[in-house]
Amino acid sequence: MSAIVRGAQLARMLNAWQVAVGVRGPAGRRPEYVVLASAVRGLLIDGRLALGVRLPAERELAAALGISRTTVTAAYRELRDSGHLSSRRGAGSWTALPAGHRVGTSGLWTPSDDADLIDLGCAAMPAPAELTEAATEAIAELGPYTLGAGYQPMGLPVLREAIAHCYTERGLPTDPDQIMVTGGVQQALDLLLRLLVAPGQRALVETPTYPNALSAFTASRARISAYAIGPDGWDEDLLLSTVRAAQARVAYLIPDFHNPTGHLMQASLRERLPSAAHAAGTDLIIDESFVDLALDDVPLPSSVAAFDRSARVLTIGGMSKPYWGGLRIGWVRGAAPLIARLAAARVGVDMASPVLDQLVAVQLLRRRSEIVSARRRQLLARRDTLAAALRAELPEWRFVLPGGGMVLWVELDAPVSSALARSAEELGVRVAPGPRFGADGTMERFMRLPYTLPEADLVEAVRRLAAARADLDRPRRHAWSSPVVVA
To answer: Strands (DSSP E) along 235-362, which ranges?
Structure first.
């Protein structure tokens, strides 16, 4: 089943669409149905309304908007003619994109050796100063482990105990048998998909979402359904109804400082999600990669797993964001029987995580308070610097200042994200355009900007972005490149 958006929900998304009525174009006043169709099309292209969602019946939407059914009928016809709506008589109408508009998402990130390039394509920070000391102490503790084979698919007991203790401190009692250590968060997701999702089964993801997660779902050959996150975060009723209607095998959600929007999921929705997932036969994969990076003094809601009564919630996390991406240590928290099954499946992939890396992770977790506190102070200053630079250089761009995490999700002044990314790279700035964060080629009006680099680099990056944006509005003479022989 596809997700259904109700008339009242779509009316809230459209907001003050009627303000546009009366705007005169070359042909004078635009008909009301054209304005309504354009507003729905704008929601779809910007990724605020997901693809494959069933729109409300004409009569229901007309009542919600306080307009005639004739106007809605004409707007739906306009959307069908433009390829943004697919209808079946007696069954309903579903959002779509015209043929040829789909954009593939590779999720790939390529580092560069160009010293002048300011890379805003990756949301990660250098290693903390404590890493060297942690590594030294880990080597000192390595001796007893070298006497064995070194293969522990679930992870070293000492690390699993440390991770379980972190969950317990957050108010989620956890036993080490509920933890499996992985080679980073990405492997945690990949292993769960290998275990839980058969080719062709449905998976529900948010849009926008983390590009490498989309790559993992594509590799698993899952059928992806999407729930669109709005400018204010998750619509509680719409997400729950989408979970029930999609009946997906798994749903992948990022409730804590969502990547890339930065939203923090409300406590009431976290409480209701596990029961809705259980009723739909859906396992929830909850990505908590950014949970430690709260920047403002806002209370952090309980983990979604705290409300799990049916072993439907699997939480993944790791060392990459609060500590260092070069330390490939992640984990899965779930019911002990499922963790045991996951460890058995893991043997066919890479046997176990490196022992030394796990011992380094233990030492870093023992320094968790000071390391994470320092990270938060750095990120807070850099977030505010990036926001101030954007307001000064590009005042037409809009964003919601996130209460945590590492990125701003910026709404541009026009749907030019991919073109701007290409233009900016010519000026020495690498950015990730909006379509990278969706499975359907939408979100050309958005761009993700991490605030993980030093403040001077962030200010210079925004200056170059402003120059690149101005270049897009100027006529350009195209330079022809020399032909390349491919043998």
So the answer is: 250-253, 283-287, 313-318, 330-333
Can you tell me the distance from the alpha carbon of 330 to that of 314, in angstroms, rounded to the nearest whole number?
Answer: 13
Contacts of 89 (CB under 8 A, 6+ apart): none
What is the C-alpha separation between 18 and 33, in angstroms, rounded? 10
Query: Which residue type is seen at 67?
Result: I
**Contact between residue 157 and residue 288 where contact means Cβ atoms under 8 Å apart:** no
337-393 pLDDT, tens digit per residue, is: 999 999 999 988 888 999 999 999 999 999 999 999 999 999 999 999 999 999 999
Distances (CA, A) of 270 to 151, 228, 253, 277, 379: 36, 17, 11, 11, 26
Q: Could you tell me the strand order of the sheet in which 250-253 lies?
A: 179-182, 330-333, 313-318, 283-287, 250-253, 202-207, 223-228
Sign of CA dihedral 362, 367, 372, 375: negative
Which residue bears the tokens 């002048």? 116
Cα atoms in the Cβ-side hemisphere of radius 13 Å centred on 359:
18
Residue 268 phi, psi dihedral angles, 5° rounding: -65, -35
Instruction: Give the CB-side neighbour count of residue 298, counting CA atoms within 13 A.
Output: 20
284 - beta bridge partners?
A: 251, 313
Distance CA(314)–CA(84), nearest Å, equals: 35
Q: Which residues have C-beta within 8 Å of that of residue 323, sequence separation ≥ 6?
A: 127, 128, 131, 361, 364, 371
Structure tokens at 275: 């029961």
| pLDDT class of 2 with cuts at 50, 70, 90 | low
- Full-model pTM: 0.80
Q: Each residue of 183-220: pLDDT tens digit?
A: 999 999 999 999 999 999 999 999 999 999 999 999 99
**What is the C-alpha radius of gyration for the chain, rounded to an integer number of angstroms?**
24
Q: Find how far residue 468's CA is from the centre of its chain.
A: 26
pLDDT recorded at residue 114:
63
